[in-house]
Amino acid sequence: MLTIDSAIVEAIVAHARRDHPDEACGVVAGPAGSDLPTRHIPMVNAARSMTFYEFDSMEHLRVWREMDDRDEEPVVIYHSHTATEAYPSRTDISFAGEPGAHYVLVSTRDDERAEFRSFRIVDGVVTEEPVTVVGATVDPVQSYMFGQSPATVDYECSGS
Amino acid sequence: MAIEVRVPTILRSYTGGAKVVEGAGDTLGGLLTDLDAKYSGLRGRLVTPEGGLHRFVNIYVNDEDVRFLGSLDAKLSDGDAVTILPAVAGGALGFAAAAALFGR
């Protein structure tokens, strides 16, 4: 399960909206071993593409070093799909290189409602996991669809 | 001649879980050959059968991407630090198209 603060969810979706129709990408770092994403780091999509993303290699080094220095790890690695669903593509699965990370996908294909879903990708196997948003404000600016159930913020999925 | 090498999580199965290992070599290619003698299979995850660096692995000498230093011919000196990071990449693009476009 991914537990994440609502302000970070909003910041990720805002980043994805800002870069639409190109794919947006980034990281949420957290204290090593905590499994808690606390520091949002929007990254440059070096591919600047509507269908592909790649971290800039120098920014990647700088951010990974900074996490190391702060005793953090990449708890969440996110990117957006801008015309398709928030589900890992074969390309995503093939390149997934951080087995400990929550891979978050955001879809901005709908102007009104963003999709926000989280997955584990280990050895080519994708497992969707529930997302629990904490600290949600009463009056959200944007409506979200978490997983398949648009009406709820917390949801359970099988095998989690 | 000791070169410190930082190994990413996904490759630590080759180094017995070690995050930092030491190797030797005058060039990156030499270093990877030296490491492969101790950590069998590691080199094959970084170098293609054709002998080039994998497109979606980033290797740095100190603060420089080795692609700008001659790739496997990048020169190394005692005390250099080498960092290996798997590229973070993906997207909605079909895998076949991505592979064709990015030469993987």
TrEMBL record, chain B:
Entries under Gene3D superfamilies matching the protein: 3.10.20.30
Transmembrane segments annotated in the record for this chain: 81-102
Protein name: Putative thiamineS
Pfam families hit by this protein: ThiS (PF02597)
UniProt keyword annotations, A-Z: Membrane, Transmembrane, Transmembrane helix
